[in-house]
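Tokenised fold entry reproduced for everyone:
>
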Amino acid sequence: MATTLDLSHAIPPHTLARLAREWLAEDTPNFDPAGLCVGSREVEAALLCKSPGSVLAGCPFFNAVFAELDCTVDWLHPEGQILGPDTVTQTAVVTGPARCILLGERSALNCLARTSGIASRSHQLLAMARSAGWAGQLSGTRKTTPGFRLAEKYAMLVGGISTHRHDLSGMVMLKDNHVKASGSITQAVRDARSVCGFSSKIEVECASENDGREAATAGVDIIMLDNFTPESIRSAAHSLKLDFPSVVIEASGGITPANLNLYLSPHVDIISLGCITQGYPTVDFSLKVQ
């Protein structure tokens, strides 16, 4: 499933460099005694994937770590490709001073294991939805790892799904606590619109069809039907689309790989899943000096 676009062009180079420096500084805040043992002679190390069927993702972050250490990475497979079917697949070759390769090894592998795990789960879920004939968008959430959100959101793109909003500034989402603190959905939407104007969409988390109707009447762009049963979400989404055809309907809350198919309604435009970045299986990569 090699991607058709070079998604790495969406990441500013200075952001990649900053993240790589932070990860390296966390792992080696002072001396590296083991580096003394291996020195700076140039060596090659093979990147091996031991999880057949996994989607390769996170290459720009892996590259950035080793670029900070004056090492080069030659990829044997493109990002987005499904690795395998062999039990072990050589994925890349890292070349550089021995101590520098070992300095970057763990940070680079940690990133690649997680981003490839997220991309693999995203790809799996998207394949399930498409095979069922559903044409909407699957999406991640903001339930990401602090300090690692950019990499996780990037992995979603490699896996073929939408990232949802990147942060609180990216789109206005009025959740139940916002509504309670404001007094009503209508008031919360009015207040939010006075600040964001025409340039930002507004989404409201709704616990019932009536909440959805109030939100749509108030002029929101997206209605999130949160924690509905599959039966109730089909009914509510159908009813809301009849009266508000231009409003986007999102389903969220309690949706997992095991029950995703039950939520694939033709009247639901987006399904967001926290399990894409929480509880996903990581991919087993290792780096072996030749």
The longest strand covers residues 89-97.
